[in-house]
Design a protein that fits this description.
- With 179 residues, the chain is an all-alpha fold.
- The chain is 82% helix and 0% strand.
- Helix 2 packs antiparallel against helix 3, helix 3 packs antiparallel against helix 4 and helix 4 runs antiparallel to helix 5.
- The longest helix is centred in the last third of the chain and has 19 residues.
């Protein structure tokens, strides 16, 4: 958090581009969220969204930072609203955003899981993993994160064997990434 705050101050002093400032705000929002400072994280993420208006891909990245904060706050209606905005950008074409599409699917799966609709969440999780693998290849960090999330969900639903299989697959990808 401290480093990111200093980076923002330096970027402002250097009259850095809006994109650079938005990226720094996204990093700061994520750091604050990891520290449990969710209100501050939300403010930084919202500021990043506002600054990134000229760059659709960066705007989506900023919205995902905001969505992660909102998920941590259990504000699912706000998550859905932000996800609709992400979907609108993704459907708008232009710059290919396959990884961002996979991430949007992951958010959707988590929302279904929270609504106790794991029957709907499961195929979306699987689709999100496949999309991440297509976008990043067999060592996709996003696919690993989604797989770990799916394994937790399966365990919570009492599907221990399926959870173990999913966890094993995610761990195998992690080992491949680590070399």
């Amino acid at each position: 958090e401290e480093y990111a705050t200093k980076q923002l101050a330096a970027l402002a002093a250097l009259d850095a581009s809006a994109d650079d400032q938005a990226r720094a705000l996204v990093l700061l929002a994520r750091a604050l969220a990891r520290q449990g400072k969710l209100a501050d994280a939300e403010l930084r993420a919202r500021r990043a969204v506002a600054i990134a208006k000229g760059s659709p891909k960066l705007g989506v990245e900023a919205r995902f930072a905001l969505i992660d904060v909102l998920l941590s706050q259990w504000r699912d209606d706000a998550v859905r609203s932000e996800l609709e905005k992400v979907d609108a950008v993704l459907k708008g074409g232009g710059d290919p955003m396959a990884l961002e599409s996979a991430r949007a699917e992951w958010v959707r799966a988590r929302l279904f899981k929270r609504a106790n609709r794991f029957d709907l969440a499961l195929p979306i999780y699987e689709h999100a993993i496949d999309a991440a693998l297509r976008a990043e290849g067999p060592q996709s960090r996003l696919a690993i994160d989604i797989g770990l999330s799916l394994a937790r969900g399966l365990r919570e639903m009492g599907q221990v064997d399926a959870s173990k299989r999913q966890l094993a697959a995610a761990l195998a990808m992690m080992r491949a990434v680590a070399g």
